[in-house]
Amino acid sequence: MIPLKQDLEEAYYRVRPYVHRTPVLTSSFLNTEIGAEVYLKCENFQKMGAFKMRGATNAILQLSNDQRRAGVVTHSSGNFGQAVALAARNLGVKAYIVMPSNAPTVKKDAVRGYGGIITETEPTLAAREAASEKIKNEIGASFLHPSNDINVILGNATATMELLEVQPELDLIFAPVGGGGLVAGTALAAHYFGMNCRTYGGEPFEADDAYRSLQSGFIERNSTTNTIADGLRTNLGTINFPIIKSFVQEIIRVEEGEIIAAMRWVWERMKLVVEPSSAVALAALNREKERFKNQKVGLLISGGNVDFSNLPF
Amino acid sequence: MIPLKQDLEEAYYRVRPYVHRTPVLTSSFLNTEIGAEVYLKCENFQKMGAFKMRGATNAILQLSNDQRRAGVVTHSSGNFGQAVALAARNLGVKAYIVMPSNAPTVKKDAVRGYGGIITETEPTLAAREAASEKIKNEIGASFLHPSNDINVILGNATATMELLEVQPELDLIFAPVGGGGLVAGTALAAHYFGMNCRTYGGEPFEADDAYRSLQSGFIERNSTTNTIADGLRTNLGTINFPIIKSFVQEIIRVEEGEIIAAMRWVWERMKLVVEPSSAVALAALNREKERFKNQKVGLLISGGNVDFSNLPF
Description:
Two copies of one chain form a homodimer.
Chain A: H1 5-15, E1 24-25, H2 28-34, E2 37-42, H3 52-61, H4 65-70, E3 72-75, H5 79-90, E4 95-100, H6 105-113, E5 117-121, H7 125-139, E6 142-143, H8 150-166, E7 172-176, H9 181-193, E8 198-204, H10 209-216, H11 240-247, E9 248-254, H12 256-270, H13 276-287, E10 296-301
Parallel strand pairs in A: 2-10, 3-4, 3-6, 4-5, 7-8, 7-10, 8-9
Antiparallel strand pairs in A: 1-2
């Protein structure tokens, strides 16, 4: 079930009043370093600091009035929890966010700051899923998955649609790959709105389920998730994988050292605070830059939410 | 000797081919925090990472062909050395940069990367001045002062001219105050191109020569310069002080803790890497925000060159 062009267009107009149209930045430094024309779509400037705001908003807007009255629930220790909390508040919907008890205080504070109602659980996936299920069953809240939900994917696609409005002739776009929701949306938008625009994914070697899934043709599980790119530790799902298989050209894996170096490079040289997941996409482009010489390259800067008490430099 | 409106206009067209037209960013977070509409002129995205590129470029462009052939010289361990090196290279001019021997390697590398010819001296002002004087006399290079030079001031003014093109109705503009070259240029541009736009300076208590100079009416010296805002440790000069006296409304002083908190706030919430000097202007606005409620406020983000091996958080 591949969405149609019209589905993307509808999502675009649906979320537009609720999200920032983020800037597209360039850097002569970066262009020289990569040997290509690189256009950064800066979703680190998005509301709550990440592209996740788009998918969460679109998903909630697709609920019926009855569903909205009952609220939404998700489990997340990262950006999606914040995105659901803020998107829900903007739409007058209650948001129940299940978080592991050991999540950093700063993340709990952010969710609470956006009006999310937090349920703390043991820090295991089973406990988080059970708690979400309970809220879903007892309160009737709609469960929102951070990446394996077609409305989330369509919302995510709107970032690339905006990028292509500014730079219609991109040859390719790089996006980081975690659960697959961003790269799937990116690839759909590039397919429908680009002019022969290919989509590449960047993924840590330490969480390379998507790379291996594209190789085998089946959804593979992460064997390790020991990466600094905390947003990319999750697995592909049954809804985004068919889209990725159809529309993503290739996934390029990167080492942890490359991620940290790319992150520092963007902070130091481009003066942009980007999170490690965003640096993964740049590191992948940089690793294979010889292949992309003189091309027009889009780069999805997925977010800028970083734990300042634990910087890698 | 106050420059005319036409002098600013000429500087604007003179430097335009050589500098970035930097973006003006806003943040709903920041507007809520301050209670005003704040517009950040992001000179951290300027070439070499700071507004200094504008003044250096304008000053070199005002030299005669003979002067350009002989090169330019300055002494600086900070942004102005890099700016002169890069601006000179862009114009095919040799740049001699006198730096203290104990300047961080990263800063020497940056100057060298832009093609500057470095002379190292003992880390005293006297030694730096003597070395510059020697290069001036022996090679015939023109000395460029980082802040007390009318062409540098006019070049700096172009940042505010661009800001006022985007936001013509600003009620006031905040700029950091070090040697006085930025705030003088800002105040001139606000005077000639604003609609009743006032200029405020932000200055550390630890280097408050400008505050005290405005009080006394005479150029006062810094008694301490023990501030994290390394760009603001220098003193006002005879060329910028009359401009500041005529056109700067007030200088607001801030504590070191306020500077660090403002810097971290911009990094964490706005995802922008700004240097401590830029944070001084925001800290000053924040300290007195009750007085600026619901006004339209411009904020000069002077630069983003930060020593990553020595972050205050």
